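Sequence, structure tokens passed on for absentees:
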Amino acid sequence: MLAMIGGKSKPMAGSYMSASEVAEELGISLPTLYSYVSRGLLRSEFADPGKRTRRYHAEDVQRLKARQEMRRDPQKVVDTALHWGTPMLSSALTLIEGGRLYYRGQEVLELARTHSVEQVAALFWTGDAQKVDLLFAPPLPPLPPHLQAVEALLREEVTPVERCQALLPLLAHEDLAAYDFRPEPMALTGARILRRMTLLATGQSHFLQGEGIAAMLQRVLIPHQSQAQRLFTAALILCADHELNVSSFTARCVASAGATPYGVVGGGLAALQGGKHGGVSARVEALFQETGSPQQAHNTIAQRIRRGERVPGFGHPLYPEGDPRGRLLLELVGAAFPRSPGVALAKALMEAARSAALEPPNIDFALATLCVALELPSGTALLLFALGRTIGWLGHALEEVQADQLIRPRAHYIGILPLTEPARKDLE
């Protein structure tokens, strides 16, 4: 992580287990372990070239252990399913496995390097990136005069994300096509929403001829740095989806109730701004501001640790060896702006965090680093997160509408039980 701003981190201990460790963890014999391997339930590989000793993927062991727990105590599995627990919904959109991330079976890091934001949106919504022209070629109608007036008023009063959130219901009222829930019309509505949010966030009235979302952001936010377009493209694609995070689960619930895509995105934005989700980016920006200079990085991290505070921007439960999204974006920012004071500050914070045995930086830290390196206004990290994740929310909405099933889990009641009739008579 020292040679490059987002260099590879050392694999954490515990990524692999020996045969005896697996057998002990699962409470099984070695012959049963070998049977699991032959049935494809566990992956194994040689621990060292030229030796017969094999090692086993710890994540496979934990998956099998979760299945054992489900059989032994189904209620316990239900109670923990909503907190990084057992998968609870089927989806063909995003896969997180082995420290890697995939959209529709395609690795996200590669998509972020080779595709446009619009191509990834088309892929995510339809399964075919080649449908990009079908979805994004139709011209975006201008805002009606009364909405232009509202937008101008909000531009001076609220953040770009709040501006989008406030105007979405009004935009829905003007867009009757949003009530067409067939897959292609819904995807077209999604393209309108994504482009409209970009205009609202940047204070623009229209896109230039042939201009994409990332190009619009670069032209408005940092017009003299053309290489920023590539960084914005990568940031939005890396943020597009992350399985059933809290905002995407919210989006699915809203969509399952029959709301329009505008309502889906509005629900997602409400959840995203929470301090435990996308709002973390604001705390990372505050960490940069508090630190001020690379020389103060160690002191800032040390003081937070001594106060018992969590240092934002480091670690992710799904990536014990480091968030690949954050790693790639940090690499791209470091390569594009190697002499930026913001990059130097980010490097110093990462080194201080590593010295304090913190986990590697995540996507929130990378987004803040991008914004600090480009000297963008405070809150831009959350804006990029919101625009990218809108792609995911709309994809989840499309999938949920096709499933045509209301999301309505039951609650496990743990409160005071009502008195039975015999018990009442006893009290009397």
User: Anything to note?
Assistant: The chain is about 55% helix and 5% strand. Confidence is low (pLDDT under 50) at residues 6-14.
